[in-house]
């Protein structure tokens, strides 16, 4: 999946300082390039939602909708779209665990030992 923002660039304001990072003025920056760097995301081309689990990447490395006062208004639409999709998926399918009697790992919350593979069948 390729982001349409890959060709969208921003320029930094004069001499911005972000916490411990100093960024020289007039640096051209692309949001998409930061999320495609191996140093932040190992195997960035691979779909891996678990990379955000636990410590995950540093804050603000992954900002698909931007941030601050100019956050993309599509952010709220995308959240609502996912809720509607999950609502219909939950109501229209039966869910059965693939692994029965699986062990539980107790960390901050109880988790299935091998994830939660399920078999979906249409009702």
Automatic annotation (TrEMBL):
This is Uncharacterized protein. It comes from Selaginella moellendorffii. Pfam families: p450 (PF00067). Its cofactor is heme. Keywords: Heme, Iron, Metal-binding, Monooxygenase, Oxidoreductase. Heme binds at residue 72. One of its GO terms (molecular function) is oxidoreductase activity, acting on paired donors, with incorporation or reduction of molecular oxygen. Belongs to the cytochrome P450 family. It comes from the Eukaryota. InterPro entries: Cyt_P450, Cyt_P450_CS, Cyt_P450_E_grp-I, Cyt_P450_sf.
């Amino acid at each position: 999946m390729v982001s349409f923002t890959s060709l969208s660039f921003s320029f930094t304001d004069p001499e911005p300082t972000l916490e411990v990072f100093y960024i020289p003025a007039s640096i051209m920056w692309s949001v998409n390039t930061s999320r495609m760097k191996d140093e932040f995301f190992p195997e960035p081309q691979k779909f891996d939602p678990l990379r955000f689990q636990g410590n995950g990447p540093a804050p603000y490395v992954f900002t698909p909708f931007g941030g601050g006062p100019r956050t993309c208004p599509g952010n709220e639409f995308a959240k609502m779209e996912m809720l509607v999709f999950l609502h219909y998926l939950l109501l229209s399918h039966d869910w059965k665990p693939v692994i029965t009697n699986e062990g539980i790992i107790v960390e901050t919350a109880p988790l299935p030992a091998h994830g939660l593979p399920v078999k979906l069948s249409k009702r």
